[in-house]
Amino acid sequence: MAVTSSEQEMEPPPEAHLIRVARMARGLSPEAAAQLAPIRLGGARWRHIERGYEPKRPPKRVRAPDTTLAHMARVVGVSPERLAEAGRDAAAVVLREILRQQAEGDGQDRERPYADMSDRLERTAWEMPLPIEDRKLIVDMLREAKAQGRHERSA
């Protein structure tokens, strides 16, 4: 799809660029990152927020609501201070509360990836468009196969 001049003029806002770079640094696709958020958020919406617009005719500007941006930032490891530096003070306040609740142990750790994201096979399995229970099963099978391979080599 060719990029139109109006799409070229729509630079993403600073917070969108920050989220995109942090997501990429974590090795997550927009779909995988969206699934880690405890709010309803899809990969396409994540992309629109990162891009700063929806690719419609004409393109439609997109600005993430504070709560959505805070949850996205938590998933990719962006601090409240960095959100505030990007001009999103209200989202930074929400993120501080999310992190406070997480530190108090309210069960928020369940959103962390079950897979070892540094392992290519586990990361690929985790990013598959399957229900989370199926992805966990695949990761478990990979781990079992690796352990069996190590056991056979040592025997």
Classify the helix fraction into a percent range.
Answer: 55-70%
Question: How many individual helices?
Answer: 9
The largest β sheet comes out as: 2 strands, antiparallel
Strand content: under 5%
For the biggest β-sheet, the strand order reads: 1-2
What is the helix/strand order?
A: HHHHEEHHHHH
Stretches where pLDDT is under 50 for at least 5 consecutive residues are none
Could you give the count of β-strands? 2
User: How does the helix and strand content classify structurally?
Assistant: mainly alpha
What's the overall geometry?
Answer: elongated
State the end-to-end distance: 55 Å
Mean pLDDT: 85
Whole-angstrom Rg = 18 Å
Task: Give an overview of the whole structure.
The longest helix has 23 residues, at 132-154. The N and C termini lie far apart (55 Å). By secondary structure, the chain is mostly helical. The chain is elongated, with a radius of gyration of 18 Å. It has helices spanning 5-9, 14-25, 30-36, 43-51, 66-76, 80-85, 89-103, 120-126, 132-154; strands at 53-54, 60-61. The mean pLDDT is 85. It is built from nine helices and two strands, in the order ααααββααααα. Helix 5 packs across helix 7 (89-103). Strands 1-2 form a two-stranded antiparallel ribbon.
